[in-house]
Amino acid sequence: NGPVAQRFGPINGQTGKRRLNVLFSRAKEQIITFTSLNPTDIQADENKNPGKYMLKKWIEYSKTGIIEAGIQTQKEPDSDFEVFVIDKIKDMGFEAIPQVGVAGYFIDIGVKHPDWKYGFVIGVECDGRQYHSSNSARDRDRLRQQVLESKGWVLHRIWSTDWFNEPDKETERLKTKIE
After folding, report:
1. Structure pTM?
2. β partners of residue 107
3. Which of 102, 97, 99 lies closest to 146 in space, CA to CA?
């Protein structure tokens, strides 16, 4: 298999994004997508060719069910606990990316699976001791979790107290969820 041709007819033009938007918004109940393309086959930049980029994102959504796949921010983990969890995830054979940006929020750790090339398979949230004592933090996190799940994210929460009290059990629970 050689590289896929990057010509998509009118979608490549200036009105390509608008054409796709009209197509998607006309569906009454559902859209069923049949394609031999993978989202990774399309090389598109949102600023240079918005139509082709939208097609890539549509195929990605059709494949994964995730609307907003997350942006790697290059930010450092927020705590030593997150660093510890990241190291455990890497030891399991998965890729762990700290502070993944989604819908204006940050997920503590985005996890990529070597058998899934379409982005993150799960988001991991690490909550420390101070979390238990703050009602406003819990309320904020509930709203945040609802937004992220509405974008297609599967989240796994790790409580630091549980992790340090039963590290083997919590590590196995995390591994099972990722797999």
Report:
1. 0.66
2. 100
3. 102
Instruction: Identify the band that residue 119 occupies on the pLDDT scale cut at 50, 70 and 90.
Output: confident
Q: Quick check: 68 and 151 in contact, CB under 8 A?
A: yes
110 is written with which tokens? 């985005």
121: nearest Cα among 176, 56, 40: 176
Return the H-helix or E-strand segment holding 58: helix 50-64
Q: Other CB atoms closer than 10 Å to residue 83's CB: what's the count?
A: 16
H or E element that contains 149: helix 135-150
Residue 28: per-residue pLDDT:
82
Q: What is the rounded CA–CA span in Å between residue 26 and residue 112?
A: 34
Strand, coil or helix: 113: coil
Those residues whose C-beta lies under 8 Å from the C-beta of residue 88, and which sit 6 or more positions away, are 171, 174
Measured CA to CA, the distance from residue 29 to residue 27 in angstroms comes to 6
Number of neighbours of residue 125 by Cβ within 10 angstroms:
19
Beta bridge partners of 72: 100
Which residue type, as a one-letter code, is found at position 173?
R
